[in-house]
Amino acid sequence: MDDTLLLPTVAAVALIVGLVAGWAVQSATVRRRLTREQGFFGLPAGSECVLVTHRDSTSAHWSIPRHDALALLGLAAVIENCAAHPEVAPHDTGLQGFGARTEFCVGDPTAHRRLAAHLANLLPGVAVHPGDESGAGRGTFTIGGSAYRMEPGAVEYVLLARLTAGEGGRPVFLAAGQRPVTHRAAVRHLVRNRARLARKHGVDGQFCLLLKVVNSQAYGPDVVELVADVTKSALTAAEPKGPRAAA
């Protein structure tokens, strides 16, 4: 072959090999990322999951409150990317136990029956104040002896948790907040930080994070701060108050 043709041919072959190798590396990276995401959410391709939310008490028909609906839309993108199949169910509909399929439970634990049941069974170290007759103190979290009371529109709290229990080993994700805007904020935090959360807590790990939504009246769900990782306190049942019994 003429030298004038050999060099361009070699260069073209090298370019093609480089492009193919780069494509292969990129494809492998994308597959690993997807596999890790599917593992973290418990959503292998073709699996089923359930999203459990409130009924809108202001509507005569079953509908979802605005912020909760937007939170579910945020989860829908993740579910579609994992090639899973979602079901939306109201909180007061009888559902099977947990662990058989991934569950996303979003809402206010003082009004959301299934969420309240999950907190009681899976996070015994968390107490949620139902409020007095006037409604004061409603939704206040008590965790590890510390109380977190909201100031509506200024400071509001939400728990974001990934828990595993029951047969099947699929996780339950909880977004338990003091106001609807906090539920949306927690889901956005989960979706945006899913890779970091998986690295920190493990693809199969459990965690419970206390988040603070700042000035939602002005910023909506956009300004969120991590108050603390309360996993240990939340998973441990609080000791009963009062004098200890004599030995």
Name its key features:
alpha/beta; 247 residues; 3-stranded antiparallel sheet; 7 helices; disordered C terminus; 7-stranded mixed sheet
Your description of this structure?
Helices cover 38% and strands 23% of the residues. A seven-stranded mixed sheet has the order 2-1-3-8-7-9-10, with helices on both faces. A three-stranded antiparallel sheet has the order 4-5-6. It starts with a helix and ends in a 12-residue tail after the last helix. It is elongated, with a radius of gyration of 23 Å. The chain is built from seven helices and ten strands. The model is unreliable at 243-247 (pLDDT under 50). The chain is α/β, with parallel strands linked by helices and 247 residues long.
Please state the overall shape, judged from the principal axes of the Cα atoms: elongated
Strand content: 15-25%
Q: How helix-rich are the residues, as a percent range?
A: 25-40%
Task: Give the termini separation.
Answer: 98 Å
Average pLDDT reading = 84
Structural class: alpha/beta
Main beta sheet strand tally, sense and closure? 7 strands, mixed
C-alpha Rg (nearest Å): 23 Å
- Our count of helices gives 7
Number of strands: 10
Low-confidence stretches: 243-247
The largest sheet has its strands arranged as 2-1-3-8-7-9-10
Q: What is the string of helix and strand elements? A: HEHEEHEEEEEHHEHEH
